[in-house]
Amino acid sequence: MIATRYFHTYGLSPQEGKRIIGKIAVKNHYNGSLSPKAHFHNRVTLEQVMSAPIIAWPLGLFDCCGNSDGGAAAVLVPASEASKYRDDPIYIKGLGAAHSALLPQNRPGFDWLHFEEVMNSSRQAYAQAGINNPREQIDLAEVHDCFTSTELLLYELLGFSREGQSREDIDAGFFELNGGLPVNSDGGLKCFGHPVGASGLRMTYEVYKQLQDKAQSPERQLKDVRLGISQTFGGPPQVAAVAVLGRELGYP
Amino acid sequence: MESIKDKVAIIGMGCTKFGERWDAGLDDLAIEAAYEAYQDAGIDPKDIQACWYGSVTQPVVGIGCTHLAGPLKLHGIPMTRVENWCTTGHEALRNACFGVACGMYDLVLALGVEKLGYRLSRLGCGTGHEHGAGGTAHCARLVWHDCHPVFSHLRTKPSGG
User: Fold this and answer.
1) Domain extent at residue B50
2) Which of A86, A64, A60 is nearest to A75 (CA)?
């Protein structure tokens, strides 16, 4: 629904739409190939993605995330005590979560492109953190790419791209490892995998390691990262959450 | 509404290898993630004062955290299980942060674990992980047996779990 409505609303032909979301799959598989703990380590080409068996049109096999086992954990302390434990603690900057009271299909006039739970949760988290320009201020993001079309829409709902402009940013490589705002640098749900209850913490683990300059290998370590977010979106869908993390007290 | 900004810090994190983990049960994954986080933080697991744990399907709903209290040896402290669809891991993190931010706790664990590959039908009762110290298999077997009689034979129940 998201993919077809997005294609229709912004005038993308089915082929062009599949090409755009296919590039997200290629990116996330590339990133996952560099992540030692990812479920999948295979890189894919755009041709492979576009010719893969259809799961639910227009989404093919490589547009859908991994069905994985896994776990992730965090140890938390008051910020005032963090330096007793390590030199490079990572600080919580904002925590947002929101429900929508209605199933998407029951929302009057719903256009399938404006999920309020995503916008409300990110608005809360950004306000707490002091983010007013997510595209410029956020240095890396882990977002809920259960399907490539979801990641496409999230770029806009989270304020990384203007509405209908994700295509330009994707073609410019803006969300790739060496782009302006790397998204899903560990491969995302798509390639790292999606053990449902663990995913929010797995994303946070990636942000934490990147902010500490401790990504497992130099080729996937992002440069000059100070602020990152992890974001999940789920249910029918009807729920969403965002965590903002930073490596310096008082920033931004 | 107040802000959580700069009130709570993460001092350690862990993450298991993701994938079809035929080698590990739910408890093994929890131990793997938690002990990497403890090691990263340089803390003794005994210092953990509270735990928020998120899982959507595993091993079943309605049994709280008892199935992980044993494997993680979290004895004498509160454990809270949270579930909220795909945001479950964030819910564990969020609520753990609030537990610290309100001044109640100084050192807490947020944990998210899931086995999706083959729910409940495998021999998911521990693999003798060193941190499990033998209690793992016993605990898991108790849980299996308590949930459904078929589980005690380490088989999938008729509806598929």
Assistant:
1) 26-153
2) A86
CA A188 to chain centroid: 7
| Per-residue pLDDT tens digits for A146-194 | 999 999 999 999 999 999 999 999 999 999 999 999 999 999 999 999 9
The distance of B148 to chain A (nearest Cα, Å) reads 22
| Residue B38 is assigned to a structural domain of this protein | yes
Asked if B10's CB is within 8 angstroms of A75's CB, the reply is yes
CATH of the domain at B139: 3.40.47.10
Task: List the domains of chain A with CATH numbers.
Answer: 2-246 (3.40.47.10)
What does the block give as tokens for A147?
A: 């399907």
Tokens of B145: 């047996």
ipTM exceeds 0.95: yes
Residues of A in contact with B54 (CB under 8 A): 197-198, 200-201
Q: Does A202 touch chain B (CB under 8 A)?
A: yes
User: Do A147 and A4 meet the contact criterion of CB atoms below 8 Å apart?
Assistant: no
Residue B161 lies in a domain: no
**pLDDT at site B133:** 34
Choose the closest CB to A71 out of B8, B107, B112: B112
**Which candidate from B4, B32, B113 shows the least CB-CB separation from A128?**
B4
Classify each residue of B68-85 as buried b or exposed e, where b means 16 or more C-beta atoms within 10 Å of its C-beta. bbbbbbbeeeebbbbbbb
Strand order in the sheet with B79-82: A140-142, A227-234, A239-246, A90-99, B8-15, A70-78, B108-114, B50-54, B79-82
Count how many domains chain B has: 1
Residues of A in contact with B10 (CB under 8 A): 74-76, 89-92, 204, 208, 245
- Do residues A204 and A222 make contact, with C-beta atoms less than 8 angstroms apart? no
Kindly indicate the confidence band of residue B142, based on its pLDDT and cuts at 50, 70 and 90.
very low
Residues 145-184 of A with CB under 8 A from B: 146
Kindly report, residue by residue over B15-71, the tens digit of the pLDDT. Answer: 999 999 999 999 999 999 999 999 999 999 999 999 999 999 877 778 899 999 999
Q: What's the burial of A180, exposed, middle or buried (CB within 10 Å: 0-12/13-18/19+)?
A: middle
